[in-house]
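Ex. 9. Protein: DinB superfamily protein.
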Amino acid sequence: MDLDEKIRFPIGHFEPRFEFTDEDRKHILDQIPEIAKNLRLVTQDFNDEQLRTPYRTGGWTIIQIVHHLADNDMNAYIRFKRALTEEEPLASSYREDLWASLQEYKDLPMEDSIMLLEILHKRFLTLLRGIQPEQFRRKLRTEVLGSITLDVAIQRLVWHGQHHIAQIKSLKSVTKIGVLNQEEIYPHCPMEIRVVEVGGVSKPQLKDKLQQCSIRMNEYGIKLFDDEKFVISPTKRRLETVELAVRNLGFLDGATTLQLFQMADTLGLQLCPIDLSPYLRIQYLDQPETCTSSTEKGNQAPSGSLTIASEPLTEDDHFPKGFYLRNIEGELWLRGYIADDLHVWNPHDRFIFCRT
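Predicted structure tokens for DinB superfamily protein:
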């Protein structure tokens, strides 16, 4: 799953279970009333401007998501009742993108849809808890999933609610931007801008240039550079980069890699091509020096390091995710690093992004 997919599907794609016990089913049903409860909790601290902010570039606003959840679950309720009373009916579909553009999605208070969900789910649960286990094996036909049982349909309902709540949570960490001065947030904050020339040489030639500049690499850096998926662009071009701290993206308490990259995208920044890293290392020879005895606090990256924001080559958490630059007691390093999806970067850690 690439970065855009992770932003769109923060809890992953829907993956149903087909072997189901009565206890499994009870666990799923117990999660239905939690949807409206968690939706109210996760949205309660947003101001009106934030409620009308898309959770990602090109995505829906929080208000649109909440109204969509109400519409979706009303449709799900009707589909479910049809499957209980008809033989494998074709579930009706609707243009959710066009529904989300209707005026009611802009004018109706968000609380109206949350209250509607609470009432709807109460009635839905009364229905679900009153039918026999074998009735959950009845089927309906859908355009997306094909023919599915009601056991799968109810899993999909719960996943769908949790999926959109997770999208809203992805914006939750930026609600603290308001307590920062705007001068501390990109593009108003102080920043270091560099123009980097990349491409135009082969991988062996680039490695020779690193050696000529006495650039050292750690084990992770060598593993990343030598991997066949690490490709050097044959086309020579110039890229403008900007150096920012995590807090300059609005994260006072730090952020995961996904949150950082998502907010950078919202602010008009781009991830760097991963092959920019060695070129920047060669061209940035006056990086301030740090010593090996420098101590970091908590989850802070190594002192004086600059992490290149780039798309990982693989989802394997044991494979280096990217490069960072460091000057350790006069020796220039191009180092690889390991970080899983749960790692929270320190507010003072510094990243390199590209911008147009």
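Check your answer against this statement. The longest helix spans residues 62-85.
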